[in-house]
């Protein structure tokens, strides 16, 4: 047991991307985001990540994981559970996108409106969310994030190393391109 | 090791193996709390520069969200800054923080000085973490640059070390 000199600590992803994860594209650079559906910074990052995936879809494999800070964002857990309920029906990404596009109006009623608009069974999902059937799944993402050094949202990991730079499109592009060159 | 700070020697951060000075500070206008309430179980002391950090990734708000993990180790958490109890109360209400936020307010920074984590230039606590064992000894400490939220992974790893839970048996993961 020691005093850790903070400067030499490199935060690394301790939970590798696996079959339970929500992943887009299949490039060689892994970009993992820990986010919260009610966090406005994650809302901004969402459009940036979409642009990034358009520009680098052959390079990047993107994974989204839940990191709801419920004491600050009261419906963030609920939104993540709804996204997981949709995932169980093969509709994670449509609901994920809807949540970020409507994040200012997220509340229990609006969540069900969104679910219905996307053609999902709202009563069934309301029942699952009410019984917190999927809360453990969300919690697992959260704890894995804490263990990996996620210190707020959004936090990105590029090839398993925490990206401590900014997440403007140019900065993410540069970081992803650097990682791609390093893996060649 | 008394933990007191000599006038002539620059203060150094308390290290693993040193006794943590006991203290009590106000966490409310009519209430004080401190290290002695945690005898027999681990304590996490989180010194931080100021209430009202303007980002979602605020360190104290994060620790509140991580509280169920700290509780698996039966660990108590104390946040400490030089803000007064009224600021702490408003901050805690705004961020949904229920663990005690202590006011190292008068004499200003006295406890932070004892732990070697008072920033004399800015007049605030450094961003410093201490994990104490059940006997009040420092098991682990870390000082982060003030602009960087150190997260909770270091704390949880230190608690693993204290409670003998190896990485294969970590809670949840």
UniProtKB/TrEMBL annotation, chain A:
Domain Thioredoxin residues, every copy: 1-181
Domain of life assignment: Bacteria
Gene3D superfamilies cross-referenced by the UniProt entry: Glutaredoxin
InterPro entries associated with the record: Thioredoxin-like_fold, Thioredoxin-like_sf, Thioredoxin_domain
Signal peptide region: none
Similarity comment: family membership: Belongs to the thioredoxin family. DsbA subfamily.
Protein name according to UniProt: Thioredoxin domain-containing protein
Automatic annotation (TrEMBL), chain B:
Biased composition (Polar residues): 1-10
Stretches for region Disordered: 1-36
Residue ranges occupied by any Thioredoxin domain in the UniProt entry: 14-164
Keywords: Antioxidant, Oxidoreductase, Peroxidase, Redox-active center
GO molecular function, one term: peroxidase activity
Active site: 56 (cysteine sulfenic acid (-soh) intermediate)
InterPro entries associated with the record: AhpC/TSA, Peroxiredoxin_AhpC-typ, Thioredoxin-like_sf, Thioredoxin_domain, Tpx_Peroxidase_subfamily
Protein name: Thioredoxin peroxidase
Organism: Dactylosporangium siamense
């Amino acid at each position: 047991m020691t005093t850790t000199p903070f400067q030499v600590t490199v935060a690394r992803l301790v939970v590798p991307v696996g079959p339970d994860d929500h992943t887009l594209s299949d490039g060689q650079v892994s970009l993992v985001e820990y986010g919260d559906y009610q966090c406005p910074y994650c809302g901004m990052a969402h459009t940036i990540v979409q642009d990034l995936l358009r520009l680098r879809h052959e390079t990047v494999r993107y994974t989204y994981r839940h990191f709801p800070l419920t004491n600050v964002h009261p419906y963030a857990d609920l939104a993540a559970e709804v996204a997981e309920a949709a995932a169980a029906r093969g509709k994670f990404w449509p609901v994920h996108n809807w949540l970020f596009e409507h994040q200012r109006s997220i509340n229990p009623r609006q969540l069900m409106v969104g679910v219905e608009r996307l053609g999902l069974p709202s009563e069934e999902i309301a029942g699952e969310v009410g019984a917190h059937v999927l809360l453990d799944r969300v919690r697992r993402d959260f704890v894995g994030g804490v263990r990996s050094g996620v210190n707020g949202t959004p936090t990105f990991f590029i090839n398993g190393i925490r990206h401590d730079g900014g997440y403007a499109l140019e900065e993410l592009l540069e970081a992803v391109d650097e990682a791609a060159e390093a893996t060649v | 090791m008394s933990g007191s700070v000599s006038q002539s020697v620059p203060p150094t951060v308390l290290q693993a193996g040193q006794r943590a000075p006991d203290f009590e500070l106000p966490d409310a206008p009519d209430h004080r709390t401190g290290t002695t309430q945690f005898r027999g179980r681990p304590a996490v002391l989180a010194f931080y520069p100021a209430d009202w950090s303007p980002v979602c990734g605020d360190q104290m708000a994060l620790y509140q969200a991580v509280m169920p993990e700290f509780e698996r180790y039966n660990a108590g958490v104390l946040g400490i800054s030089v803000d007064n109890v009224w600021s702490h109360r408003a901050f805690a209400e705004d961020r949904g923080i229920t663990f005690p936020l202590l006011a190292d307010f008068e004499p200003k920074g006295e406890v932070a000085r004892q732990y070697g984590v008072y920033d004399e230039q800015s007049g605030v606590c450094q961003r410093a973490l201490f994990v104490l064992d059940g006997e009040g000894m420092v098991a682990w400490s870390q000082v982060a640059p003030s602009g960087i939220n150190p997260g909770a992974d270091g704390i949880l790893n230190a608690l693993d070390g204290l409670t003998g839970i190896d990485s294969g048996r970590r809670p949840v993961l």
